[in-house]
């Protein structure tokens, strides 16, 4: 294993393995038909049938993703195979980016253990690649919005890490510009990218600046640029749309004009009539814990959950007849306690890592925050008609997988040390 990790071809090999596994796993889905929102967004969307409309398409809220659908249509019409191949390829790119991002993050805090960095990054990326929780983001064609936005998001984070590692100022500046542009492309693929400035700041503080605010402030131009873009997106897109919807006419954005969803037909935002902000928040406590359960034990997955909505912090939500869930239905206060304990663990791990000799603790702390930051647009107090969708945890799941890989490695490392100690004691 050590010889494999030390090979100069390891990066190429793991990238090839990730790609091969993904295409093997998803090869039986290439003929899967259009479903649900695929119909209005692709099949019945005549705008994407003419590349002459590309300018109008790109001006929409999710114009980058819709432009890729237009290119798909130009090549193969409504033949689903092409759409699935592109979706699968995007997922493969994301898994490879996840590997390189985690690897480069770890090398910032473990200068003399590159083999360990490769191992943790490889474990995390491989699980991310083939875990069943990703099925919806890959096979539900229209949710290319989620995976494509994630791709540009990961590119932005990776380029930032590469920029700070570069000794050439021109290269560094060019990469910082590319970070800002990647943020733009990510948001124009889907609005979940709105969290990137916060995560970029946190990643800088944890790993690049070494928790030194003066060093972080020295990179104010790139942070300032992404936060200015954040403000622009919030004012021009998120606020008029009323929130972070998964799919709707107003959020897919066929043109430059953003139609406010406030009203009877609102699918997201404070105009939603079917659930109040308070009820949505309480429901999300249970939803987030359910996401974690799915990541740990991915069974009884569903494209369209009938998830029980909460009405009170201490009230048990009513479960509809026939609904099958992996966890018992409990009052939101139980889930809230679990989530508070996880966040508290993140702060505790961060404080424990301040000595600089505990890279596992610092990494685990960061990726706990990663999970909660990335899931925040759809799991907050801003209502969305559908309270749960598996694709919402697509990129957030990487945080879980990194922590899982760290725990697995710690267990096996401890066992190996114990066995070596036993052998040493026997020799003595």
Summarize the structure.
With 428 residues, this protein is an all-alpha fold.
Can you describe what's shown?
The structure is a single chain. The protein has 428 residues and is an all-alpha fold. It has a domain of 155 residues. Helices cover 63% and strands 0% of the residues. It contains 18 helices and no strands. Helix 5 packs across helix 6, helix 6 runs parallel beside helix 9 and helix 11 runs antiparallel to helix 17. It is globular, with a radius of gyration of 22 Å. About 4% of the residues have low confidence.
String of helices and strands: HHHHHHHHHHHHHHHHHH
- Strand composition percent: under 5%
Terminal CA distance reads: 28 Å
Low-confidence stretches: 248-264
The number of strands is 0
Q: In angstroms, what is the radius of gyration? A: 22 Å
Can you count the helices? 18
Indicate the mean pLDDT: 90
Gross geometry: globular
Helical proportion, percent range: 55-70%
Biggest sheet features: none
Structural class: mainly alpha
Q: How do the strands and helices of this protein lay out in sequence?
A:
Blueprint: H1 2-6, H2 10-26, H3 38-43, H4 54-58, H5 63-76, H6 80-107, H7 114-130, H8 135-139, H9 144-165, H10 169-187, H11 196-208, H12 213-217, H13 220-241, H14 249-252, H15 277-296, H16 332-352, H17 359-375, H18 397-427
Helix pairs in contact: 2-6, 2-7, 5-6, 6-7, 6-9, 7-18, 9-10, 9-11, 10-13, 11-13, 11-17, 15-16, 16-17, 17-18
């Amino acid at each position: 294993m050590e010889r494999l990790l030390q090979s100069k071809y390891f990066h190429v090999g793991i990238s090839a393995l990730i790609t091969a596994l993904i295409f093997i796993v998803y090869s039986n889905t290439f003929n899967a038909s259009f479903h649900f929102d695929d119909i209005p967004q692709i099949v019945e969307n005549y705008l994407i049938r003419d590349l002459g409309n590309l300018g109008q398409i790109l001006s929409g809220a999710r114009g980058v993703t819709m432009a890729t659908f237009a290119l798909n249509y130009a090549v193969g019409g409504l033949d689903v195979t092409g759409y699935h191949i592109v979706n699968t390829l995007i997922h493969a790119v994301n898994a490879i980016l996840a590997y390189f991002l985690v690897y480069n993050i770890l090398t910032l805090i473990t200068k003399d253990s590159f083999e360990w960095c490769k191992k943790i990054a490889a474990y995390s990326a491989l699980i991310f690649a083939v875990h069943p929780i990703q099925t919806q983001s890959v096979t539900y064609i229209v949710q290319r919005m989620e995976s494509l936005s994630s791709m540009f998001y990961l590119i932005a984070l990776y380029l930032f890490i590469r920029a700070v590692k570069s000794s050439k100022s021109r290269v560094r500046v060019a990469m910082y510009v590319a970070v800002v542009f990647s943020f733009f492309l990510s948001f124009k693929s889907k609005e979940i990218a709105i969290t990137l400035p916060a995560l970029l700041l946190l990643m800088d503080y944890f790993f690049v600046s070494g928790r030194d605010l003066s060093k972080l402030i020295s990179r104010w131009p790139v942070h300032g640029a992404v936060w200015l873009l954040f403000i622009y997106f919030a004012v021009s897109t998120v606020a008029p749309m009323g929130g972070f919807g998964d799919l709707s006419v107003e959020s897919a954005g066929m043109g430059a004009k953003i139609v406010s969803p406030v009203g009877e037909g609102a699918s997201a935002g404070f105009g939603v009539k079917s659930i109040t902000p308070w009820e949505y928040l309480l429901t999300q406590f249970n939803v987030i814990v359910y996401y974690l359960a799915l990541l740990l034990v991915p069974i009884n997955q569903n494209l369209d959950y009938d998830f029980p909505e909460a009405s009170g912090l201490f009230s048990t939500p009513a479960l509809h007849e026939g609904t099958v869930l992996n966890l018992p239905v409990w009052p939101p206060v139980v889930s809230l306690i679990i989530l508070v304990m996880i966040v508290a663990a993140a702060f505790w791990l961060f404080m424990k890592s301040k000595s600089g000799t505990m890279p596992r603790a610092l990494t685990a702390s960061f990726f706990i925050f990663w999970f909660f930051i990335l899931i925040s647009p759809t799991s907050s107090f801003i209502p969305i008609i559908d309270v749960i969708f598996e694709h919402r945890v697509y990129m957030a799941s990487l945080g879980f997988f990194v922590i899982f890989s760290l725990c697995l490695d710690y267990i096996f490392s401890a066992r190996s040390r114990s066995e070596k100690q036993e052998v040493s004691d026997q020799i003595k």
